[in-house]
Amino acid sequence: MKQNISKMMITPTALVINTYFCSFLRALLLRVDLLWLQLYYFATLFVFGFFVLANLEPRNPLHRPKNYDLFFTSVSAATVSSMATVEMEVFSNTQLFVLAILMLLGGEVFTSMLELQIKRFKLLETNKAHFNSNGSTDLENDSNSSKSNTELTYNSMKFLGFIVLIYFLTVHTGSFILVSLYINLVPSAKQVLSNKGLNIPVFSIVTIISAFANGGFLPTNESMTVFKKDSGLLLILIPIVLAGNTLYPVFLRIILLILRKVSNTEELEYVLKNHSELGYSHLLSGVRCRFLGLTSIGFICVQFVLLIYMEWKSEIMEGLNPLEKVIGSLFQVVNTRHTGESVFDLSLVSPAIIVLFATLMYLPPYTYILPREDKDSKCNEEQKKGLIGFMMVSPITLLIIGIMLICISEADNMHKDPLNFSVLNIIFEVISGYGNVGFSLGYSCKRQLQPDGNCKDAWYGFAGRWNNFSKLILIVVMIFGRLQKILKDGSKAWKLS
């Protein structure tokens, strides 16, 4: 009897709270700009990730990372930047799983699904408000026609969201099975994890999520260097990397075209012919998809040929047979945009290739060469206001300011340790952070002009040797770079005229 009375007293309160919460959420989604929503979303991920990582025990309690580095790692994972200031093997399996969740929730495809749902919700609510304000008027026929078009758009967005969700789940599930099977069947790969005390399911989950989200964080300190002889594993990961970012629009359009061969529904036809009206930035026209695919493959080929030509007999490829060199090089160049997983020590790579990598890291993920005017890429003038206007400041300006501030902050180190703290190394690190890539030239105790007996080489990025202010600048650069990709729809055409 007491329990029933208690339920009767609690239920109305819960309903009131639920009603107010739903009203607040509805107002937030309708009135707040999409960029602000994205900023709130990522800020929530940063804070959530930091507190969870800080309250979980690392693998070795005696080597607990500093809180500042945990926050840096949380931001790096959520922005899928993979800039590391601590060694990955410090983290326990649970912490690695948390990092995987952050990369999953911050990945391009997942955030695009959320964005699509928000736009669908806004379309529905705006349509309701429009027809409620009209009431019964003499424009009934026009209202019915408009309502029909809105309903088709709404259903098409719902259909597209379902296709993207299936794509998302299928790639992750299939890839997890392939990676798990490979590790269990190939003794060399299994032995690596056994020596490091890594769990196969956890490794497979983190690796697949990292590859698809283009996050770059892996459970091993050495990234994929420790697997550079496992060509089968590298071949499994290459298409996953491309499917989650640079070629995602191409794969999405191919899936839609295949579905049209099977079932030509009204919503499917609308999605294929009205990509601009749906507002899904990853749904590109057939022409743009073709040029995007050609451009992405072209970038890969240029990097691949140059890397093979200049590094075939170099130190980074020692101990590899010709086939392993080819596959390792292919994996390396595919990860330049924008995953950051590496099989080679980039500090040993030729300067010309480093410059090429830095250039490609800077480019938006959907950069394509289009030898004519691209009407779909024209900027909306209304976006040049408020926070959006600020976010659309030239990336070059941001990078120059960031590099200057870091150089000022690290002036003493640049004077005492010029080979490690060179301007090139700092520029490369900042561009990598802006592009949300995660490549780093690292830090080597052997390059010190004034040897420090306490110096120990570590498996983390060059930023791990920076002071807290410099790391803060890099955090801002990573966030800016992540939001820039969203703001500019991640695509930009190169004009050849």
What does this structure look like?
Helix 6 crosses helix 11, helix 8 (200-213) packs across helix 9 (231-243) and helix 15 (351-362) packs parallel to helix 19 (423-434). By secondary structure, the chain is mainly alpha-helical. The protein starts with a helix and ends with a strand. Helices cover 65% and strands 2% of the residues. It contains 20 helices and two strands. The longest helix is centred in the N-terminal third of the chain and has 46 residues, at 140-185. The chain has four domains: 1-31; 33-108, no CATH class; 109-127 and 147-369, no CATH class; 383-494, no CATH class.
List keywords for this structure.
single chain, mainly alpha, two-stranded parallel ribbon
Helix-strand blueprint:
Blueprint: H1 2-31, H2 34-55, H3 67-78, H4 93-106, H5 108-134, H6 140-185, H7 187-196, H8 200-213, H9 231-243, H10 248-262, H11 266-273, H12 275-278, H13 286-311, H14 322-334, H15 351-362, E1 366-369, H16 386-391, H17 395-409, H18 411-416, H19 423-434, H20 468-487, E2 491-494
Parallel strand pairs: 1-2
Please state how the strands of the largest beta sheet are arranged side by side: 1-2
Number of helices: 20
- Overall pLDDT metric: 84
Share in β-strands: under 5%
Shape, principal axes of CA atoms: globular
- Unreliable spans are 1-10, 377-385
Structural class: mainly alpha
Q: What oligomeric state do the depicted chains represent?
A: single chain
Main sheet?
2 strands, parallel
